[in-house]
Amino acid sequence: MTDFRSDNVLGCSPEVLRAIERAAEGTQTSYGGDEITASLRRRCCELFNADVDVFPVLTGTAGNALALAAMTPPWGAVFCHEDAHIHRDELGATEFFSGGAKLITIKGEGGKLHPADLERSIDEIRNSKKTAVPACVSITNATEAGTVYSPDEMRALFDVARKNGLRVHVDGARWANAVASKKVKTNGIDILTFGATKNGTLNADLIVVFNRNLSEDLSMRMHRSGHRPSKMRFLSAQLEAYLTGDLWLSNARHANAMAAKLRDGIAANAEIVRPVDANIVFVRIPPPMVKSLETAGFRFSDWPIFGPDVYRLVTGFSTDESSIERFISVFTRR
Amino acid sequence: MTDFRSDNVLGCSPEVLRAIERAAEGTQTSYGGDEITASLRRRCCELFNADVDVFPVLTGTAGNALALAAMTPPWGAVFCHEDAHIHRDELGATEFFSGGAKLITIKGEGGKLHPADLERSIDEIRNSKKTAVPACVSITNATEAGTVYSPDEMRALFDVARKNGLRVHVDGARWANAVASKKVKTNGIDILTFGATKNGTLNADLIVVFNRNLSEDLSMRMHRSGHRPSKMRFLSAQLEAYLTGDLWLSNARHANAMAAKLRDGIAANAEIVRPVDANIVFVRIPPPMVKSLETAGFRFSDWPIFGPDVYRLVTGFSTDESSIERFISVFTRR
Amino acid sequence: MTDFRSDNVLGCSPEVLRAIERAAEGTQTSYGGDEITASLRRRCCELFNADVDVFPVLTGTAGNALALAAMTPPWGAVFCHEDAHIHRDELGATEFFSGGAKLITIKGEGGKLHPADLERSIDEIRNSKKTAVPACVSITNATEAGTVYSPDEMRALFDVARKNGLRVHVDGARWANAVASKKVKTNGIDILTFGATKNGTLNADLIVVFNRNLSEDLSMRMHRSGHRPSKMRFLSAQLEAYLTGDLWLSNARHANAMAAKLRDGIAANAEIVRPVDANIVFVRIPPPMVKSLETAGFRFSDWPIFGPDVYRLVTGFSTDESSIERFISVFTRR
Amino acid sequence: MTDFRSDNVLGCSPEVLRAIERAAEGTQTSYGGDEITASLRRRCCELFNADVDVFPVLTGTAGNALALAAMTPPWGAVFCHEDAHIHRDELGATEFFSGGAKLITIKGEGGKLHPADLERSIDEIRNSKKTAVPACVSITNATEAGTVYSPDEMRALFDVARKNGLRVHVDGARWANAVASKKVKTNGIDILTFGATKNGTLNADLIVVFNRNLSEDLSMRMHRSGHRPSKMRFLSAQLEAYLTGDLWLSNARHANAMAAKLRDGIAANAEIVRPVDANIVFVRIPPPMVKSLETAGFRFSDWPIFGPDVYRLVTGFSTDESSIERFISVFTRR
Predict the structure, then answer these.
(1) Yes or no, beta carbons of D102 and B124 under 8 Å apart
(2) How close, in Å, is residue C309 to chain D by CA atoms?
C-alpha cells in the first residue's frame, strides 16, 4: 500500500526520534524554561537572521489561529484566499481564538492572492465601515493548490498590506517546500507559522514571531488555550533536530523532487490541473484508472472543489522513489 | 542536581519512547483515523469496563478546559475547590473554551471539596438566579494538596452533583497516583481528564468520556482549538504504552512510595503541612535549611498559599531512591 | 431639508409616544415580569396565530445576532446573502454572540438567495467536513436591495433548509414592508427578528420565537449581553402600540407607497437599478443631478457596491408626500 | 400597593418624557451622529469638568460589561466585591464581553472593598502568574449594600489600583445617590457607568469615558453587541433631560431622604443591618410583621445573603412620602 493522501500520513525523520530520546534524559525546567527551547530560539535567530521569538505548537491549526488572534482585534478582518486552510479546514479556529474576527475570502488563480484583488477587497471592507476593520492578510506558502509564491509575488502582496496598515501572516505548513522550490524569504512577515509535522517531525510546528510586539499577547493565548505543554522540551527537541544540518530543507527537496518526478511521469497521459511547484500534484484521472490505481495499492484523495475527477497526490520527506515509479508505470500502462 | 519542583521536570518512560518509534513506521490515516488510536480506545473500554470515547490531548489544561466546555453552557457555573488547577493555574482556560462560564470556588480542608459545602454553594448560585446556572462540579484527584479523595468521599460528592442535576468532571492530572493510593474508581464520572504526562509520557494526556452524549460536541471543540493533531497516532502510541501492562500504575506506585519515604524520613524533624496520600510533600522548612538543601543540589518550590516557609516537593515515576535518601540525610544532619 | 438616507433618521409614531406615557404610570415588576410585556406576547400569538415567545430588543443587530447564536453551535455555518446586513453591517455581531460561527455568503440577484445556490453552498460546506457544520439559513425580507421575497420564494428556500436539517431565521428589519408588499407569512420560520424601529418605534424591535425550544437559551443570552432591561415595559409598550390596530401595516403601506411614487416619478428619466418592492429606491443619478438635488435640500446615500453613481433613497412611515413631489420635480426639471 | 422591591419598578420623570417627545420631531443622523448626542457629550464635559467621551446604553449590565471589556485583556483579572452586581447579577456578562476575563471577588464589610484587602488580592493573583493578569478594579458606588464610599475611601482604593498599574471602573448604577449622599467626585476613574434608569429615565444609562484611549475599542464593542441604536437620539434625549437643571441630583436627594425617613421611623423597632447612606434600607423583619406589611399592600424583597429574615426596601425618585409614613405606621403599630 502506498499512501499519497497527504504528507501527514507519514512517520517522522529518524533524527527527530533520536532528539526526543536525548531530551528524555535528566530533568528540565518546565513550561518552556528549558535549555532545548532556548537553543531552538537561538537556532531560529540564526536561520532567519533576525531577533525572533518562537513558540512550538502541536498543530498547524493552533499555530495559525493563535498567530492570527494576536494580530487582529475581535472585530478585525483577516484577508485570505478562498481556499485557505484557515478558512476551509480549521472549523472556525481563527474565529474562535480571535473572539469572532472575520475571514474575508478572495478568489485567485493558482491558489494565490493577487495584489489588485487584495487591494480591492481591503478597500471594500474599509469603505463599508461596519463589516469589519481591516487587520491582517494571511497567505499560505506553498499554497493549498501546490503552487509557490515567488519572492517577488510575496513582496507585492506585502507592499499592499503595509500600505494599508495591515499585518502579515504566512501559513507555512509547507514553508520548507516553498523555500526548496523558490528560495522564498521571510522579509515583511510579522508571524510565520512554520510547519514541520508534514515534513519530518511527529507533532510539532513552530510559530516564529518577527514582530516581537505581538509575543507577550501570544504567550498568554498559548497558555490559556492549553498550547503550552509542561514538557515543552519534547516539542522543541523535534524542531531543533528538524532545523539542524538542513534536515528541513533536504526533506523538502526530496518531497518536491518526488512530486516533480510524478508529474513528469504522467503529464503526457493526464491533465495536471495546477502547476506543481512543491510536493502536491492535482491531476484529473478518469474513473477506470482510479480503480486500477487503487487495485494496485495506491491511495489518494478526490478534490472536487478543483473540478470533477480531480485528485490530489501528496509526496513527502520519506516517499520512496520506487513507489513513484510504480505509480507511473500503472498510470502509463495500456 | 535533584529536581523536586514538579513531576513534569522528568523525562519519560522508555516504553513510551519505544512505542513512538514503532508508530513512526509505515503510513496511517491522519486526524485520529489510525489503528493505534482505535486500539487505545479498546484498551480504555477494557480498563474502565465501560463503553468510553477517548481524545488524546497535548496538555492537562486543554484536557480540563475542553471537557468542561462540553459540560457547561457559556452561562454555567462550574464548582471547584479554591486551589483547583483549573482556577489557579490555567490563565482562564475554562472561561475561554466555554465562552465565559464562571468557576465558583469553594474552600475545603486538605484540598478537598466537602459535600455540605458543595451543596451550600450550589444552592446559593441557584437561588441567585442571575449569577450563573449550576452546570457541573470539577474535582481534582489526587488533589493539588497532595491528598487523595477516597471512593466514599467521591461518591458523596457525586451524589450531591447528581441530586442537583450537575455533571461531574475529574481533573485526573495525577489519577494514577490516586488509584495507586486509594483504589479509586470512575463510577459517576461524566468526563475524566486522565493525566499521563506527569507520570511517564512525553506530552500526552487523555480525555475519557463516560457520558458519550458529550463526545460529538467535544470532538468539534478539539478540532477548532488546534487540539486534533494530524499525526494523532504519536499521541495515542504514548498513551497505549502507558496503559499497557500496568506501566501507569507501577509508575505511580513508585512515585507515591518515594513521597512516603521522603515524608517518613523527615517527619520527625519538620512540620508536614498536608497529608501525603500521593506523590507530593508539603513541608515547612526553615530558611537556613532551605539554603543547605539548595547547596546540596536540591531544587523545590516555595508554596506561600499554604503558609510561610512552606515548600512543595514532588516525586515521580523516575525518582531515584538514593536521591530521597540523600535529601533525608541533609535534612536530618545536625 | 428632506432626508432620504434611511428610515432610521425619522422620529416615531405618536401612538408610540402615548403608549410610553401610559406605561410610565405606577409601578411594575422589572425584567419583563410586567403586564405590558405579557400583553405584547398575547398580541403576537394572535397576530401570528401561533404559540410564540417574544423578546423585545434595542436594535436589529442585537435581535439578529442573539437569534442566530441560539440557532447555531459555535462551529456552525450560517448561510446568507453576500449583501446581508448580518454580514455587511453588524461588525461581526453574529460571530461575537455565537462564539465564532461562520457566515457563509452566497451571491444572488436582486438581493435574494436562490434555492439552487443555497443547496450548492450547503453541500459544499457539508462535504468539506472541516469548514463548519451547516446550522441555519438567514434571509432578509424585505431584502437589503429593497426587493421582497414572495411567499413562494420563501417556501422554496425553507424547503431546502428543512431537507438539510437547517433552522430558519428571518431578518425582518423591514418585515412590515414585506407584508404590505407581498402578504408574506411566517410559516417555516424558527425565529423572526421583527423590526419596528425603522417603521415607527423609538428603539424597539422584537425577537419572535416560533421554535420555542430555543427560548430558554435565548433568554440567558439576552440577560448576559445586557439586552434585558430592568424597565422592559418601556420597550414592550412601544411594540404593543406598534401592533395595535394595524399601525405597523399602515405605516409600512405608506412607506411603500411613497417609494413607488418616487420610482414612478423618476423612472422615465433615470435607471432604477433594483426592483422597488418595498420602501427603498436604488437609482443611478449623474453627478450634476446629485448636486442639484443636494442644493434643493435632499439627502441620500451613495451605494457603490451596486455600481458607480448609484444612490439609495429610503422612504418611511412619516415621509411627506409633498417631499416626494418636490424631489420628482427637481429630478425631472430641465 | 406600594412597591419597595427596587428602584427599577418605577416609571420615569416627566422631564424625560417631554425630552423624548421633542426628539421625535424632524429627522436626525443615525447611529449617534445626531445633535442631541453631541449636546449630551458637551453637557457631560461641563458636568465632570473633563474632556470625556460618552456612550448611551440600554442597561447597566451592558454599561458595566462593555466598559470592563475595554479595560481588561481576555486573560485579565477584574477585582471586585463579592456582592458586586457584575459578579452576582449579570449572568457572566463581563466574562462574555471580555472573552473570558476572571472576576476576583473580595470580601469587605458594608459592601465595600478595603484597600489592604484589595492589595493582598492583587498580590496573590500577580504572584500566581498563572491565574490571571491583574487588569482593573471595579467598585460600585453607592454599593449593593446601600452604603456610599466617601471621597477619601475612593481615593485610597484608587491609589492601590494606580500603584499596581490597574485601571479603575465604577459601577455607578446609583451614582447620583452617592453624589447626593457624600459629594463623591470622579477623580481617578477611567470609566464610570453612570446609572440613570433607576433614577428617572426609561431605559438609558451612560458610559462616561475619562481615559479616552479606551474609546475607540469601546465604540467597536458597542456596535457589534447591538448596543449602538440607530435612533441613538432617543437614548441621548433621556440622558440630556436627566442632566439638565440638576434633575439627576434632586431625584436622588429625594430618594435618599425617603430612605432616611424610613430608617428613622423604624429603627427603634427593628434591626437595620447595613448603614443607610443612599436609597436602600436593609432591615431584619420578623415573619408576622412581614405578613402584616404585605397585607397592608407593601412589597419588598427578601435578601438571604445578608442573613435570615433580612429584607431590602428601596426608595426612588418618585416615592411618595405618605407611603413611607404608612409603612412606618404599620411597622410601629402594636
Answers:
(1) no
(2) 22
Cross-chain CB nearest to A75 (options D74, D75, D220): D220
What is the grid cell recorded at A213?
Answer: 510586539
ipTM exceeding 0.90? yes
The band of D333, judged by pLDDT with boundaries at 50, 70 and 90, is: confident
For residue B100, give the nearest of D92, D127, D128 by CB distance.
D92
Grid coordinates representing B189? 464520572
Q: How many CB atoms lie within 10 A of CB A152?
A: 9
Residue D301 contacts C where some CB pair is shorter than 8 Å = no
Which residues of D fall within a CB distance of 8 Å from A99?
74, 99
How far is Cα A159 from Cα B169, in angstroms, rounded to an integer?
50
Task: Reduce the secondary structure of chain A to three states and give it as a string.
Answer: CEECCCHHHCCCCHHHHHHHHHHCCCCCCCCCCCHHHHHHHHHHHHHHCCCCEEEEECCHHHHHHHHHHHHCCCCEEEEEECCCHHHHCCCCHHHHHHCCCEEEEECCHHHCCCHHHHHHHHHHHHHHCCCCEEEEEEEECCCCCCCCCCHHHHHHHHHHHHHCCCEEEEEECCHHHHHHHHCCCCCCCCEEEECCHHHCCCCCEEEEECCHHHHHHHHHHHHHCCCCCCCCHHHHHHHHHHHHHHHHHHHHHHHHHHHHHHHHHHHHHCEECCCCCCCEEEEECCHHHHHHHHHCCEECEECHHHCCCEEEEECCCCCCHHHHHHHHHHHHCC
D202/C226 touch (CB, cutoff 8 Å), yes or no: no
* pLDDT, tens only, C292-328: 999 999 999 999 999 999 999 999 999 999 999 999 9
- Window 56-95 of B, Cβ < 8 Å to C: 73-75
> Distance (Å, rounded) from C-alpha B116 to C-alpha B157?
9
The CA distance from C171 to the nearest CA of chain D, in Å, is 14
Q: How many helices (H) and strands (E) does chain D have?
A: 13, 13
For chain D, the C-alpha Rg in angstroms (whole number) is: 20
